[in-house]
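Re: the pair you flagged

First of the two:
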Amino acid sequence: MKRAAAYARYSSDVQSDTSIEAQLEKIRKYCQEKGYVIVREYIDRAQSATTDKREAFQKMFQDAEKNIFDIVVVYKLDRFARNLYDSVVYTKKLEDIGIALESATEPITHDIAGKFFRNIMSAINELYIENLKQELRDKAIVVAKKGYHMGGQPPFGYKLVEVKDEYGKRRKRYVIDEEEAKIVIQIFEWAAQGYTLQEIADRLNSLGIKTRRGGEWRV
């Protein structure tokens, strides 16, 4: 009977342990049907597969060297790696020590055709991620141009007000904070007069003007 290691992963805080349980349930069912016994389960939470710096992932490879299991089973190949390079490199590492990689939901054979299919799927997964990144960048630019909040603390001189966008969705928009704007204008005037950043910070502190967080100005 083959000894199996189950590897599950979800990539962000938007997902949850429910995603992990769904993956493991599918993996366990697959192993039962194949007659494999699961001897280890490795789980990475809120970890992207675009990097190999995943704690459970690396622990799995350390254990692989100890001959603890014969096969690694994932829910889908994109749980293992989402770029072609990592997929090829880490699958080869497993193969070199006699361990196979299988997907509970994708038919991967261990012949040359199976390797070809796996590489094609890995390339598709990488393309998906790169397209998604580009779409998110494009969306962020559009949102920023409209003055909507992108997260984090607004710059000094601005505040956030809640508005409805053109689709009726509630958003927060940057607007000028009139009181802080006076200070910002003064800072630019001092800079135009040749004051250094340290001198400007000292002046603000001497006037008792606090930062957004109520502290002193520092360079």
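Second of the two:
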Amino acid sequence: MNAIKSILFICLSLSVFDTQAMAISSLMLTNADNQAGVFTLDNTDEITYFLKTSVSKVEIVDNEIIKTPYTRENLDSWGIATKPSKLVIEPNMVKEILVESICGDKCVTDRDQVYQINIQPVSYSTEGKEQSKISMLFGFSPYYIVPAKESKVEYQLDYQGENIIAKNSGNTMIDIVIDQCSKNGTSITNTNTSSNGKGGDESDRALCKANFTILAGRTRNVHVPKDLQRDELEVMVLNHDESFKEEITLNRGE
């Protein structure tokens, strides 16, 4: 399996996320390799975008997400860096942002290291005229995760009403997957099938599958989509590379 894996908070079988006419390859990327992680940006607009990137370290403290921006003042504690930090994407062009580890021997490996990559537009002028579309510009803030060297998966799931209370007390992120799609792609939760009796397209599959990511040390109240709710709900719990994989049945409480 490719060690660089795209994971969504709620997976709807999509791999590209659009904001106006700009798309990014992933909103959450895990990278267990020593090689750089890659985010791909695709500009399908008719204007040129000038972008800058910044990084925030993400930590869980008392179940709260704390984000610490990287600045010159905390340069010695930086774990990763983006390359390039500034870029220009012309119309119909694709550019990559590399995320490289720079912590060397200081890298923490006994627990997931979580970062947020902030990709923001900057205003610019051409021939003395301010870019007229600046008010429509976008921003992306995908997560980038360097998994623990050795996964220690510990979790609790409590299915109550329409929600799953998920507590991740391990040292690494987990995915909770609800998959009610048949192997041939037919949507169990969607009765709108094609005339030949086979399942529909990707939108059909999206209705029968959901994926929730729980960061290490985090407790989340996860809402189960109505079409997927069952009194006995089968779920799968995975770590980033599926070296841990467990199927369980949750009984719904009141």
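The two ends are 40 Å apart (CA to CA).

-B.
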